[in-house]
Design brief:
The complex is a heterodimer of chains A (485) and B (142).
Chain A lengths: L7 E4 L2 E4 L11 E4 L2 H6 L2 H10 L9 E8 L6 E8 L4 E2 L11 E10 H4 L3 H11 L14 H10 L1 H6 L27 H7 L12 E12 L2 H6 L7 E8 L2 H21 L12 E2 L3 H36 L3 H4 L2 E7 L1 E10 L2 E10 L1 E3 L18 E4 L7 E6 L1 H6 L3 E3 L8 H7 L2 H10 L3 E4 L2 H6 L8 H10 L3 E14 L1
Parallel strand pairs in A: 3-4, 18-19
Antiparallel strand pairs in A: 1-2, 2-3, 4-5, 5-13, 6-10, 7-9, 7-11, 8-9, 8-19, 12-13, 14-17, 15-16, 16-19
Helix pairs in contact in A: 4-10, 5-10, 7-9, 9-10
Chain B lengths: L2 E5 L7 E7 L2 H16 L9 E9 L2 H18 L2 E12 L3 E11 L13 E2 L5 E5 L2 E9 L1
Antiparallel strand pairs in B: 1-2, 2-8, 3-5, 4-5, 6-8, 7-8
Helix pairs in contact in B: 1-2
């Protein structure tokens, strides 16, 4: 463990850094991790989560999920809730890729039907979902249409033929968060993002074809409700965000906040944590612009879903309805949202920042669609391209302990540069093919950076939150085909 | 001379860079070169299209941040990679940067493309002069 700070064990898989460990901490920091995961955490996590604990208006604890690792501003895996009246909003607590998230789709297809055509399918998907640096999207929209997308998100897609009416309820916030105001978005953000709708991006973003095996269904009843009922069933996972549009919104407001800090007499321990009071003009403008990017990210994953449906239909020469390509759920893992929690016995409105963390709402919450209200929210945790991913269910315990939040992925343990020294992209491609994963990538060196060895053991990460009852395991998913940006 | 190195042991998920130059112009050039080297093999970029830009900032670190933010923005808005920089930095009340940057449209089959850069961050961001060299450290979000 790379820290000299005192890290006290609260209970199995839960650790606390007391307020006394750093000057200015307003609340303790809590880290969710098994002994091994805590031991492996880099020093950035401890520095960054205690920096977050110093931000004005923070409630209860600054939290780090078990996939936590060194980011910028917040650690990746960081969660913090701020009083909406007296607290702050910080772009460094959300990330540049606003509403980066994961969507999971089911199909009626089985492994036996898909495996023989995996190469053809991956090639077709690679053509229809552009990936990598400089990829242009399939959709040509005007600036006024993009502004509509900012306000309406997935509703715009459905109205324009890029989705089915019932897709809406299977997306966090129904694919559209109210309050987005395109007048708070710069012309630069519009010109940067206007040609990228329907593109995957790069880095750890991917479109993956996965399979369910009978050994990997942990909760049959919940799996059925989530649309997973068959052994060897094929599912599809999409990991991407708001593309250049969101990146520019975040860049623009980081500069605004860097200046606003002086105006409000605020200081932070990391310049990337630049923030402003949520109710200030700067804070309010950023929130409204951030929602524009969040809604466009939901729309981006919706357009990609439409292209996936078309590609499967073409390859299998079958109507999309017969293929049963339905959304299980779509989760945002880089976002800030206004939510209500019981804090010190009183219900309170807070702005929850989740940076590399997934909402994990338990059964009964009114935010969940009726189809899932009895079992809790589907939580999608994407693994590295070489390893498994998980579908989980949110719990009541998450509402009490983590502001309804859990991990978002495996979490990196190795820098990109270090991974490239250990692995070559072309060799990894062959190894993955031997392991039954057919990959097509926009970048060989980019693929090497995403090798499984650069990540923590996702099963241990997921197990940590399962043990604590924050999220319950439902299904493990094994990759068989991957398009990497 | 323009130089840059990738720093291995900080910012696990992103890319940390230290760049150097004998002058501010060299420092800014090295930082831009490193940024595009993350995304591509910059030796394959032909100087076919020229863009001119002017930036102004009261602080030198703010100017470097704006410079990198601007070329990252142009990469997406113009679908371009840049490989050649001709720039001049002066100071009166503010620092002023005037640049001609040259590159070409991104071609996925021609350029050896790597990882896209989303943004320049303020995390551990610094610009300073030491023993006659200008040095900066910055982290790019990937």
């Amino acid at each position: 463990m790379e820290t000299e700070m005192k890290v006290n064990k609260i209970s199995d898989c839960l650790w606390e850094i007391p307020k006394t460990e750093k000057e200015g901490m307003l609340v303790p920091a809590r880290i969710y991790a098994s002994d091994t995961l805590l031991e492996e955490m880099d020093k950035g996590v401890f520095e960054q989560i205690t920096n977050v604990a110093c931000l004005p208006g923070i409630q209860k604890y600054a939290l780090c999920m078990p996939d936590g690792h060194w980011g910028y501003g917040f650690p990746i895996g960081g969660v913090a809730a701020f009083d909406t009246k007296e607290g702050i909003i910080s772009p460094g607590g959300i990330g540049f890729d606003i509403n980066c998230g994961v969507r999971l789709l089911t199909t009626h297809l089985t492994v036996d039907e898909v495996k023989p055509r995996i190469r053809e399918l991956v090639n077709e998907l690679y053509k229809s979902v552009p990936a990598g640096v400089g990829a242009k999207g399939p959709l040509k929209v005007s600036a006024s249409q993009l502004k509509e997308i900012m306000k309406k998100g997935v509703d715009w897609c459905i109205e324009n033929g890029y989705g089915l009416p019932h897709d809406r309820e299977r997306i966090e916030e129904y694919g559209h968060i109210p309050g987005a105001d395109p007048s708070k978005v710069s012309e630069k953000a519009i010109s940067r993002g206007i040609n990228q709708l329907g593109t995957l991006g790069s880095g750890n973003h991917y479109l993956e074809i996965q399979m369910v095996t009978i050994d990997n269904i942990y909760d049959k009843k919940t799996a059925n409700i989530f649309g997973i009922s068959e052994q060897n069933q094929i599912v599809i996972m999409v990991h991407c965000g708001s593309r250049g549009f969101g990146h520019q919104v975040a860049t623009d407001y980081l500069r605004v906040f860097d200046k606003a800090m002086k105006k409000y007499g605020m200081t932070v321990r990391d310049r990337e944590l630049a923030c402003a009071p949520f109710k200030s003009p700067e804070g309010s403008d950023y929130y409204k612009a951030m929602l524009c990017a969040a809604n466009s990210a939901f729309a981006n994953r919706q357009i990609i879903t439409h292209r996936i449906r078309e590609s499967f239909s073409k390859v299998f020469d079958t109507d999309t309805e017969k293929l049963g390509i339905e959304i299980v759920y779509d989760v945002a893992h880089n976002i800030a949202k206004v939510e209500r929690y019981k804090i010190n016995g009183k219900e309170k409105e807070v702005l929850v920042h989740r940076k590399g963390s997934t909402r994990s709402f338990g059964p009964g919450r009114k935010e969940l669609p009726e189809i899932y209200r009895d079992v809790g929210q589907p939580v999608i945790v994407g693994g590295s391209m070489q390893t498994d991913s998980y579908l989980l269910a949110g719990t009541e315990k998450a509402m009490e302990g983590t502001f309804g939040s859990t991990m978002h992925g495996a979490g990196r343990t190795m820098s990109r540069h270090a991974a490239k020294k250990r692995v070559r992209g072309d060799q990894l491609l062959k190894t993955m093919a031997k392991d039954g994963i057919h990959v097509k990538t926009a970048s060989m060196s980019g693929l090497a950076e995403e090798a499984g060895i650069a990540y923590k053991d996702i099963s241990e990460v997921v197990e940590t939150m399962d043990k604590l009852g924050i999220t319950k395991k439902v299904v493990k998913l094994k990759p068989i085909g991957n398009i990497k940006g | 001379m323009e130089e840059y190195i990738f720093l291995d042991d900080i910012a696990t998920a992103d890319v940390a860079i230290e760049s150097r130059g004998d002058t501010l112009e060299e420092l800014f050039t090295a930082s831009a070169m490193a940024t595009f080297e993350v995304m591509s093999d910059t030796s394959s970029i032909q100087p076919k299209i020229k863009k001119t830009l002017h930036l102004e900032h009261s602080e030198i670190d703010g100017l470097l941040f704006d410079w990198l933010a601007e070329i990252i923005y142009l990469k997406d808005s113009e679908f371009m990679l840049f490989g050649k920089y001709d720039l001049k930095i002066t100071k009166d009340t503010n620092y002023q940067l005037d640049a001609e940057i040259l590159g070409e449209e991104i071609n996925q089959s021609k350029h050896d493309l790597r990882c896209d850069v989303k943004a320049i961050t303020f995390h551990l961001f610094e610009v300073y002069e030491k023993n006659g060299k200008w040095i900066s450290r910055f982290i790019l979000d990937i």
